[in-house]
Design a protein that fits this description.
This protein has one domain. The chain is built from 3 helices and 2 strands; from the N terminus they run H-E-H-E-H. The radius of gyration is 13 Å and the shape is flat. InterPro entries: AB_hydrolase_fold. It comes from Frankia canadensis. This is Esterase.
């Protein structure tokens, strides 16, 4: 079993009862978009954002990440 499979299959994602934003990129080797989507499917309040590029570190997406994180945090804080 690979590390992503262990994270996806062995952790109690259904018990995470807070808004959870999962980020990845189309060219990310870990987690791949499919692996990230499998986790989000198990999160009661999960949301997935797949960026078009950036690899594992989401490089080159500073402005987009800033905007997405600001929006997500504002949503959480304002209910």
């Amino acid at each position: 079993m690979s590390a992503p499979e262990m994270l996806r299959d062995r952790l109690p994602w259904e018990d995470v009862d807070v808004p959870t934003l999962v980020l990845t990129a189309e060219d990310s080797p870990l987690p791949t978009p499919a692996e990230a989507a499998a986790v989000v499917d198990r999160l009661p309040r999960g949301e997935l954002l797949v960026l078009p590029h950036g690899g594992h570190l989401l490089l080159g997406n500073v402005t987009r990440l800033r905007d997405v994180l600001r929006e997500a945090l504002t949503d959480v804080l304002t209910g």
